[in-house]
Amino acid sequence: MADGIGRGFLSVNHELPAPAIHVCKDDVIMVDLTNDAEGTATSIHWHGMRHILGTQYFDGTPYLTQCPIPYGNKFRYAFTADDEGTHFYHSHSGHQKANGIFGALVVRAPDNTNPNRHLYDYDLPEHIIIVSDWMHHLAEDDFPGIVSRSQLTQSILINGHGRFFNQTSKTYQLAPLTIYHVEPNKKYRFRFINSGFNVCPFLLQVEHHEMSIIATELSYVEPFTIDTLYSLTGERFDFVINANKTPGDYWIRPQTMLPCRIITEGFAVLRYGNKSGSSVEFVDKDPPRESKVFLKQKIFNSPKPKVKDIPFLKLNAYEYDDSIIKGEPDHKYYLFLDSPTFSDDALYSNKTHYRMSCKFIN
Ligand SMILES: [Cu+2]
């Protein structure tokens, strides 16, 4: 049910999100994929894997690095987990990622290679925050031809759970939420994955708690502390939360930001104590609406940075290749990127495409 509203979706092993994969650096990841989704072809992209040992044909881009896997067929992915870090995997075919095919992929390495290991007590497999936007229909319904600059996010899910907020009745749909358990006065490494499909950035906050960023994507970074994290789809950030507040429940809240006109929010709970409690639960109280209780004084990657904010350029890796940063390129290529808005006339005038549905005006 995801956000309390029923819909059909695509899944891996009947799970949303897809099962998390945890491995050690240099392990071989072998995944046998059977496409049971009638009428589809599929492929999986292992986001963050560089395939440096020559396994680029497992990168999952259909028609580029592999033929898509037709319905009823099997395909084996096999590659080495070369890069430590928080990664994820998702379908790279059609709109299947928006329809539910995404999951975490975590590669761990020995503590003695981690310059930030002393900053936390625990790095638990259940402390993954995989955030995705969600609609109440299959993403294909909006094509061919989008009626707006983007598809409309209706909910945000954290590890596949959220509560739909009805903008008309101003009520939440009752649905269970993800619970993250922590012990008082311990420090925890959380692994945040932005698995959104829309163009809107997510803004992440944890009620009354700061986040110390210690790693992003493939690299550890010199740690810095923020209370608000902006991120775009595909990005991953690892941060430490110090559970040093009064024991209780605290909201973890991602929001969509501009250019999405309607702000959509997702919720999970950071819960002190009760270590063996369930990781998914109905929570009695309603989440706060655009609450003022969340700190917003130290924002990472804010589009309009203020004095205390941390811009992306302040992020310092422990190791980097000076020759790449300061080197002179042999060639420069300028790519022009835009999100053009097509009128109905432009899309349908040649009578070879017909609109299937038109549900939302963003
Ligand atoms: Cu990706």
Automatic annotation (TrEMBL):
Keyword ATP-binding: no
A Pfam entry, by short name: Cu-oxidase
Alphabetic keyword roster: Copper, Metal-binding, Oxidoreductase
Gene Ontology biological process terms from the UniProt entry: iron ion transport
Superkingdom of origin: Eukaryota
Gene Ontology molecular function: any one: copper ion binding
Residues annotated as domain Plastocyanin-like: 8-110, 127-274
GO cellular component labels: plasma membrane
Keyword Ubl conjugation: no
Family: Belongs to the multicopper oxidase family.
Family annotation (PANTHER family): FI03373P-RELATED, MULTI-COPPER OXIDASE
Protein name, entry field: Multicopper oxidase
Higher taxonomy: Eukaryota, Metazoa, Ecdysozoa, Arthropoda, Hexapoda
